[in-house]
Design goal:
By secondary structure, the chain is an all-alpha fold. The chain is 58% helix and 0% strand. The protein has 7 helices and no strands. It is elongated. The protein starts with 37 loop residues before the first helix and ends with a helix.
């Protein structure tokens, strides 16, 4: 017997663990291609800054003050940077973790990106427990979204219905195996 083959008396078979999601339920159709995280993070940061500018303008128009239109930048301008920082952080961490793990479809990279963005969102209040809570909430929300295939139900184009059904059936334990 060669030293690389395990001895039969030492082989251990573990029971199935249905409570753990498989890291990759099916082999990837094409190999993962790493992407540099800075480019997409910069694009998401700029887009988030635009959304923050819109939110700042709405907040400025609904508040009562004597600053006029410049109140978008002087009174509520912090919202622009806040949104930009959260968006940049999410995208950078998401792409970095996906590059390290070699997969972006299992929800882990989405969880870590959401957790980082949630931490940035919560730390603005000045409370570490709030930041940790936002980290857990945003990480769970984004990770679940990614693990579910990145579709909310009304979106189309990523996976066909048959492919999603095949993945769903392959994910859960077969009924005849569960009854044994």
């Amino acid at each position: 017997m060669s030293p690389l083959t395990p001895r039969p008396e030492l082989d251990i078979t573990l029971p199935p663990r249905p409570f753990l999601a498989p890291s990759t339920p099916y082999p990837l159709k094409e190999p993962f291609a790493p992407t540099p995280p800075l480019g997409p993070a910069f694009n998401v940061g700029l887009t988030s800054a635009g959304v923050g500018l819109f939110v700042s303008a709405v907040k400025n128009s609904l508040d009562t003050h004597n600053k006029g239109a410049l109140g978008v930048f002087t009174r509520t301008g912090w919202i622009v940077g806040y949104f930009a920082a959260a968006g940049f952080t999410f995208s950078y961490i998401d792409h970095t973790v996906a590059n390290i793990r070699g997969s972006s479809t299992d929800g882990v990279s989405g969880f870590t990106g959401g957790c980082a963005a949630g931490f940035v969102s919560g730390i603005r209040t000045g409370s570490i427990p709030k930041a940790a809570g936002m980290c857990a909430f945003m990480g769970a929300a984004v990770g679940t979204y990614d693990l579910a295939g990145g579709q909310l139900g009304w979106e189309s184009g990523k996976k066909s219905r048959e492919e999603r059904e095949r993945e769903r059936l392959g994910f859960f334990k077969k009924r005849e195996l569960a009854e044994e």
